[in-house]
Design brief:
Number of strands: 0
Largest sheet: none
Radius of gyration: 17 Å
Helix content: over 70%
Structural class: mainly alpha
Strand content: under 5%
Distance between the termini: 39 Å
Number of helices: 6
Shape: globular
Oligomer: single chain
Length: about 160
């Protein structure tokens, strides 16, 4: 259970951190204080919904052939790859937003079915609720503690107030 909880914390926390700070990411990558992130947020949102639909229905269609945790692994790999792609420059912002949105949406779609497949239906509401709290803890760790402190340190280094 704790391993699955940690996977959800890492995947969903990284995705929520990305979307929470996407405005600053766009400005930093484009090196323009006035850069707009609206189109990228729209792409992220559309692919988040698409990921929920495709990964959710795809895992259901393939449940006799492929275990659902493999779909969760696919989402984690997509999220990792999109974070690596973000290092290639501002031309990759659209694909990164799409891939990150798809993977984050897919991880939320898989949450209940993966918990049920691994642990069975016994105490399902308790286990699902605990795993759903992983998004909160991941957001707290990645967005507030890690990204927030990095952002504050960089603002201090540049002599700017936040």
């Amino acid at each position: 259970f704790y391993l699955l909880f940690y996977i959800f914390v890492a995947c969903q926390g990284a995705g929520i951190m990305f979307v929470n700070n996407f405005g600053q990411i766009v400005k930093a990558m484009k090196e323009d204080e006035n850069a707009q992130s609206l189109i990228y947020i729209t792409v992220f949102s559309i692919f988040n919904t698409t990921g929920r639909i495709i990964i959710g229905s795809g895992s259901e269609a393939c449940k006799l052939k492929v275990n659902r945790p493999w779909f969760l692994t696919l989402c984690a790999v997509m999220m990792s790859a999109s974070l690596c792609l973000s290092n290639l420059g501002d031309s990759m912002l659209g694909p990164v937003a799409a891939c990150m949105g798809f993977a984050l949406g897919g991880s939320f779609a898989l949450q209940a079915v993966v918990v049920e497949e691994i642990f069975g239906p016994r105490d399902m509401p308790l286990k699902y609720s605990a795993c759903f709290a992983a998004a909160f803890f991941g957001s707290l760790i990645f967005s507030d503690l890690i990204a927030g402190s990095l952002y504050d340190n960089e603002a201090d280094r540049q002599g700017r107030t936040v």
